[in-house]
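Technical annex B. To support the medicinal chemistry partners, we prepared a structural model of the target in complex with pyridoxal-5'-phosphate, based solely on the information shown next.
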Amino acid sequence: MEPVNNTPIYKMLKEYYEKGFLPFHMPGHILGRGLCEELKLAGSLDITEVPGSDCLHEPRGVIKEAQERAALCFGADYSLFLVNGSTSGIHAMIQAAVKPGGKLILGRDCHISALNALAQINGKPVFVLPDVDEKHQIPLGVTADSLEIVLKENPDAQAVLITRPGYYGTATQLRNISKLAKAYNMPLLVDEAHGAHFRFHEDLPEPAITQGADLCVQSLHKTLPTLTQTAILHGNSKSLIDRRIIERTVSMVQTTSPSYLLMASIDIARSIMENKGRELYEKLKHNISDFLIKLDKNTCIKRIKCDNENFEIDFSRIVLSFKSLGISGFEVEEILRSRFGIVAEMADLNHIVLIATPFHNSMDFDKLLMALKLISDEYRTVKAKAKLPRWPQQLPERIVPLREALFENVEEIPFINALDRVSGVFITPYPPGIPLVAPGEIINKEVIDYVDILLRENCPVHGIHDQKIKVLKARL
Ligand SMILES: Cc1ncc(COP(=O)(O)O)c(C=O)c1O
């Protein structure tokens, strides 16, 4: 896909290469000469800080211009490019908002980077349980009502972090959450890693940064046409967090040798989306609805719908249910890959999750449909499926601070003997993919029973390998 126009970083890189300089500078492959054939072209644009290329940590030239263009395009007051994914942006937001040892209110559905960031500053997580769709066992996200209860109990917390959307494409309604955070005078940080495309079609959920979030990170590489690792942190000039502070923490978590290839790919994607984003997503919406009509007509496979009014849906995230067939989501994922060469983003017991982008065409959807039709015909006989237990509504008790728990010595024991031990790991069953237990929390009877049922159903439970788990050694 050609960039449309106005791509200052990309333009600078091309001009530098075309000047035919003889480089006696980093990187060591000297404009691709030392790279293998496949990488040579990319290498020709892979320079570092040379005259004219600007500095990510104190941008004054092309990076500054590209970031300003991005802010306008994504609806932010300012935007900062990230070359180590949303992971680095989450670290930067938390360091900016929470003082060492302070409390952060966050959804239990948060990404691991949020807890790692908290551990680094010896911060205290205060969790809000996300809503789980009972019928499909899918995590939906944190609602304003659940957040308010935790806010009331923790007025001394220093910030709120919300993850939206989740992996299954449900995005919590943010307006009331934003009002609540303001009422409690807490900055609202949003992990919108999966929602970088939200700005480009009115039928997608509204982006967090235009709904009052103080800061928000988006992984461009997850849904937009950019290279892996690219992300953006968007800021609000009326934020409780001063721009100077977040710029400082972003600088602390980024390399001093940022890849211009990564930054150029952000610049190019912004240009494409700014000029054609709506048109591209309209076409995708059309392709998806066409695909779904045919899927409904030709198969027993259903796209799951979320009718909970607290959540909006990302139409580009296709979650298919195989509940009515004699096959699990894991098996479908495997068959699609090995027999049809189609690779899904993820699977759980009853579902597969597909990320559709404007760069999929109608032929891709036809290929997917053909494969699903064959699977549907083959596995039409319904095997009785186990009913999964209800997601525990009580969080396990924490007895060791997160940071200590992550660094303490552990021992591996059979999971069935882990009752009342302190976990050294995250125990995360799929579904619903939310940590049931975090390091430093007690493994109680409810956890043992819940995991036992999932393991018997062959559901993967991250943190448990060969029926064994790592628990803190010194805490019996
Ligand atoms: C909800 C969520 N937040 C943050 C991240 C981290 O994003 P990145 O891979 O861009 O660092 C992920 C990655 O999968 C994620 O799913």
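Notes passed to the chemistry partners:
Residues 402-472 form a domain with the Ornithine Decarboxylase; Chain A, domain 4 fold (CATH 3.90.100.10).
The CA atoms of residues 69 and 133 lie 39 Å apart.
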